[in-house]
Amino acid sequence: MCYSFNNKKVDLKKIAEELDAENYESGYVQEENISAFTRPAMPIVLEHNGRKITHATWGLYAEIPKDKPAKGLNLTAEKTHTIYKNFEHNRCVIPISGFYDFQHVPISGKKTPVKVKHEVFWKDADHIYLAGFYDVWESKEIGVGIVTTVANELMSEIHNSKLRMPICMDARMADRFLKDEPIEEFVFPAYDPALVAVNLEPHKMPPPTLF
Fold it and tell me: pLDDT class for 108, splitting at 50, 70, 90?
């Protein structure tokens, strides 16, 4: 995913009921376009002395090097037991309405492809859960990285530059993830989420050919 999502339509009361979580805070950032690089105080659901909805900063690490601004934002699932082994049992899920990604489309006569923005969401649902690992910093703030897996058929077409996607779950799978079931149960192709996508910039697509 390209470091942005939409959670404006997420109903936290519904999330609390769906995942049997306590929601005792307010003031979460819920907007149409949330960028990882603004490090928003987004709502997450985690297991920490009980299941609760709380604030978290997008980014696993408290300090991000200036030359690596994306470090800790997205975490590769295949590195769970190595690079992220200190966090793999710190499970959380991030409720969102949908996330954004860019399809790279070649255009005749141009050296570089055009990037076409898409919104991806769960079919026939108003929200989706992203898998995350978290850390509690010395400041007591919580930092979260979103766990990614190889792309399924849909995301291979949309995120065709990287062939990756976040681990996306419905409530049943989110509950299992929070219960610390093996990460291998949630990656593609072991699990294939029911995702659909909308092209937000159809005007950028090349005209259809007759052949």
Answer: confident
| Least confident range of 16-25, 84-93, 148-157 | 16-25
In three-state secondary structure terms, 7 is coil
List the one residue out of 134, 120, 105 whose CA is nearest residue 202. Answer: 105
Whether residue 181 lies inside any domain: the answer is yes
CB of 178 closer than 8 Å to CB of 93 = yes
CA distance 70 to 67: 9
Give, in degrees to the nearest 5, the angle at Cα 77 between 75 and 79.
85
Query: Domain limits at 139?
Result: 4-100+124-194
CATH number at residue 71: 3.90.1680.10
Q: Decide if 93 is inside a domain.
A: yes
Q: Using only C-alpha atoms, what is the Rg of the chain? A: 17
